[in-house]
C-alpha cells in the first residue's frame, strides 16, 4: 500500500494549487493523509475527488467548514498499521515523550504545523512523521511531502520528496 502524507497546504493563501508532481503522486497513491491547515474547504473537496481515499484532521488555520468535516485527531488503521493524524504536537523539545504519553495506541503519528519535515521514532517505538509543506517552506530549503509504503503490517519505506 502506498500513501502520500501532506500537511500545511494553506490553499489558496500560500499557493493557488498543489504542485503537479504532488498531484501525480496523490492520484497514484492508495490513500492520502493530510495533517491539517488546508485553509480552503475547496481544497478538501478537490483532494477527495482526485485521491482514492483521504484521511485528515483540521489545523489551527482551518475555519468552521473544515472543522465540521474533519476531526482534531483522526485515527485510521491501514494495512495493519495504526495511524494517528493531528496538526500540532507542541515544541520539538520533549516531543517524543509527549507523543508516547498521548498516543500509546498508535504505530505512526502524522503531524504538521511547523512546516519542518520530521522523522523520528520515540523510545516506545511510535514513529513520528511530519511531511513539511508543499506550498510554504518557511525557513526550510525546499517544499516537501512524504510517501510511505506499507507491507506486511509495517512501514517498509518512508521517502521525503522535495519540490
UniProtKB/TrEMBL annotation:
Calcineurin-like phosphoesterase domain sequence ranges: 1-152
Enzyme class: hydrolase
Keyword Cell membrane set for record: no
Domain of life assignment: Bacteria
SUPFAM superfamilies associated with the record: Metallo-dependent phosphatases (SSF56300)
Keyword annotations from UniProtKB, A to Z: Metal-binding
Protein's UniProt keywords contain Ubl conjugation: no
EC number of this enzyme: 3.1.4.-
Cofactor: a divalent metal cation
One Pfam family this sequence matches: Metallophos_2
Family: Belongs to the metallophosphoesterase superfamily. YfcE family.
Protein's recorded name: Phosphoesterase
Amino acid at each position: 500500500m502506498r500513501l502520500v502524507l501532506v500537511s500545511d497546504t494553506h490553499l489558496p493563501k500560500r499557493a493557488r494549487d498543489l504542485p503537479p508532481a504532488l498531484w501525480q503522486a496523490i492520484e497514484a497513491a492508495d490513500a492520502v493523509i493530510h495533517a491539517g491547515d488546508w485553509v480552503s474547504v475547496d481544497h478538501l473537496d478537490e483532494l477527495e475527488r482526485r485521491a482514492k481515499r483521504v484521511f485528515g484532521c483540521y489545523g489551527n488555520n482551518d475555519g468552521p467548514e473544515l472543522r465540521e468535516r474533519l476531526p482534531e485527531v483522526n485515527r485510521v488503521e491501514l494495512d495493519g498499521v495504526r495511524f494517528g493524524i493531528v496538526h500540532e504536537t507542541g515544541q520539538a523539545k520533549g516531543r517524543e515523550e509527549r507523543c508516547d504519553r498521548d498516543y500509546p495506541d498508535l504505530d505512526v503519528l502524522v503531524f504538521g504545523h511547523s512546516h519542518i519535515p520530521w522523522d523520528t521514532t520515540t523510545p516506545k517505538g511510535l514513529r513520528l512523521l511530519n511531511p513539511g509543506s508543499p506550498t510554504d517552506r518557511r525557513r526550510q530549503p525546499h517544499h516537501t511531502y512524504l510517501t510511505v509504503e506499507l507491507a506486511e503490517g509495517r512501514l517498509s519505506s518512508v521517502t521525503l520528496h522535495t519540490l
